Amino acid sequence: MSTDITDSEDATDTGSVSKDGVAGADTEAAPGPGSEGEQPGIRSQAEGGIVAQLRLDHAALFLRPTLRDAPAVTVEPAYWTTIEPGRTVVFVTVYGRDFDPFETALTADPTVTDPVLVDRYSDSRVYRVTLTDRAVTVTAETAALGGRLLDLSSSRDGWLVQLRFPDRERLVAFNDYCREHEISVTVDHLRVSDDESEGVVALTDKQQALLTVAHEEGYFDVPRGISQDELAERLDVSKSAVSQRLRRAIGELCAAALP
């Protein structure tokens, strides 16, 4: 669903986008003295808030040129850090079968420089890249608005990002910032962050979506009603991403359910 955030009624806060990272951490908060388990002097944003799953696109978004030229892989940034003034390094995990198109596109991508293959596995690879000053990112502004990154991965039309903001106003500010900087924003869904009825707490939205489709289509039946290839096609991700996401989701459920 493509929705303007300002028209949504089930949000609670706002956020914003910027040009030097990929998401953020909580900042300004209301004081919460007397809340159970909280120390005096520690401000709290733990109550309420809004979780937004968004699709972001812009020609100069971090790694966007590479994603456009190598749509068969799924990219998940692992972490990033500024190791010296003006130099931000990002580690990304790439899932797929054929990495040649990705590596070819990566070497020509104007949003990054100095790409390095850091590790190699049977169905994924880890790369380190350095951001250039041409890269458009969302980290700093998201953090400035009190937002927090929950999940981030590539999609065929840009980046699929899940963000939590303390209230609706800051989410709207994030949308306004994107509009001002010509970053396309498509809303997949919004939910109140403490509404546990919307999903299993231990799972990300992508993990829950995968498990829901897998269960409904008989992936766990004997014999199976759907293959991983078919799941990947239904969810528009690579088979490797489906395999990794299934293992992580099942691991999270076991960790939450078992003593």
Automatic annotation (TrEMBL):
User: Sorted alphabetically, which Gene3D superfamilies does this protein's record hold?
Assistant: Winged helix-like DNA-binding domain superfamily/Winged helix DNA-binding domain
Q: From start to end residue, where is composition biased (Acidic residues)?
A: 1-12
Please indicate if the UniProt record lists Transcription regulation as a keyword: yes
Tell me which residues make up the HTH cro/C1-type domain. 224-244
Renumbered residue ranges of the record's region Disordered: 1-42
InterPro entries given in the database record? BAT_GAF/HTH-assoc, Cro/C1-type_HTH, HTH_bacterioopsin, RNA_pol_sigma_r3/r4-like, WH-like_DNA-bd_sf
The organism named in the record is Natrinema pallidum DSM 3751
Under the heading Pfam families, the entry gives: BAT, HTH_10
Sorted UniProt keywords: Transcription, Transcription regulation
Task: State the name under which the record lists this protein.
Answer: Bacterio-opsin activator HTH domain-containing protein
